[in-house]
Amino acid sequence: MPTDNSGIDALVTALLGELDDLADAVSERIRREVVLYQAGDPVPAGSLRQSVRDNAELILRQFVSEHAPDLSAPWATGRERAQQGAPLPEVVRAYRVGFAHLWDALVAKARASEVDDRVLVDFAATVWRLVGTYTDAMADAYRDTASQIMLEREHERSMLVEALFTGVLGSQDTLWEAAQTLGLPVEGCFVVVAAENPELGKRSLVGIEPRLRAGGIRSAWRLSPEEHIGVLALPYPSLGERLPDLLRGRATARIGLSPAYPHLRETPRALRLARLALGTLPPGQADVAPWDDAPVAVLIAAAPGEAERVATTVFGPLLDLPPADRKVLVDTLDAWFACGGSAAEAGKRLYCHANTVRYRLRRVEELTGRGLGDPKAVAELATALQVVRLLPVRG
C-alpha cells in the first residue's frame, strides 16, 4: 500500500535490515503463545522460521509499495500448513501473532526515531487492511490444499478398498500397507457388508462410517453405481450379533452380511457371500440378511437358474394356475411352514378356518405330487417355496 510519509519508508528500511533478528523474535513469540508450535510437530521450527521470514519481508515491502499486494508468501504458508496437517484456527492465530509482533516492532522503531504518532495512527489502517488481506489469502490457500489432499486421500482409499475386495493385494507386505492406510488391522474379526443402492449411485447406508466408528468399529467403504460395500473390523466377535440391528435401522434397500472371518486376505470371498446373503431378500425389501440366517436361500441366490428349474420341477402344475389361485396356495404353504406345520396356527395367520388351510394344502399335494407327510417331499416343497419368494419364477 502506498504512503506519502517518508518517515514510514525509513522505518521499513530499518526493519528490513534487521530481518533475520526480526524473524527469530517473531518465531519465538509464536512458539510461546500458540501451543501447536511449541513441540515442533507438525510444524518444524525451521519451517516456521522460514515462513515467518518470507511473510515478514513481503509485508514490510508491501507497506511502502504502490503495487497490489503480493500474496505468494501467505499462499505458500497456507499450502505448507495444510500439507503438514496443522489445524487452520491455530495457523490463523499464529499469523495474527506474527502481524502483531511486526506492528509492535514498527511502533518501537517509530518511537525511537521520533516519528509523529499521528503518522502511525494514519498508517495503522493500511497495516490492518493488509493483515486481513494476507490472512485471508493464507486461509484460502490452506482450504484449497486441504480439499485437494482430502480428495487425493479419498481416491487412494477408494482404490485400496477396490483392491482389497478384488483380491489384487497379493503379498503380505502390500496387504499390511493397505490396511495401515485404511485404518484396519490385518487379523481380527471382520464382516463384509453389501448394500444395494436404492437409486443409481446413491448410498444405501448414509453416514454409516462415523456411526460405526462411534461404536468402536473401524470400516472402509466403496460406492459403485449399484452397491455400497464395506469391510468392518469388529473389536470383539460378539459385536457381530448386534450388527444386523444396527444396520437395519439405516437400511433403505437390501443389505447382505458375510459370516465373520479372521484375516483381511479373505475379504474377496466374504464379499461374494455378503452378496449372496443380499440375494436372499425379495427385491424391494429394505432389510438386513446375515449369511448364516438363511443357508437354503443363500444356495438359491448362488445358482438362481438351477434354483428356478428346481422350483418348476417341484411345483409343476401349481405354477400354471391363474396368478390369484397360485398366490393363495403358495401363501398357505408358506404360513404352514412358518407355523411349524400347524394348520390351526396357519389359519389364524391367514384369517381363515384350519379346515380351509387343510383343503388348500391337499390341493398343493395333488398338484405337486408330493405329500406333506413325507420328509423328503417337505424338504423339496420348502426349497421350491423359497425359490418362488426370491426369484421371478414363471406363472
UniProtKB/TrEMBL annotation:
Residues 172-278 form the CdaR GGDEF-like domain. Residues 20-157 form the RsbT co-antagonist protein RsbRD N-terminal domain. Residues 329-386 form the PucR C-terminal helix-turn-helix domain. InterPro entries: CdaR-like_regulators, CdaR_GGDEF, PucR_C-HTH_dom, PucR_C-HTH_sf, RsbRD_N_dom. It comes from the Bacteria. Gene3D superfamilies: PucR C-terminal helix-turn-helix domain. Belongs to the CdaR family. This is PucR-like helix-turn-helix protein. It comes from Amycolatopsis thermoflava. The lineage of its organism: Bacteria, Bacillati, Actinomycetota, Actinomycetes, Pseudonocardiales.
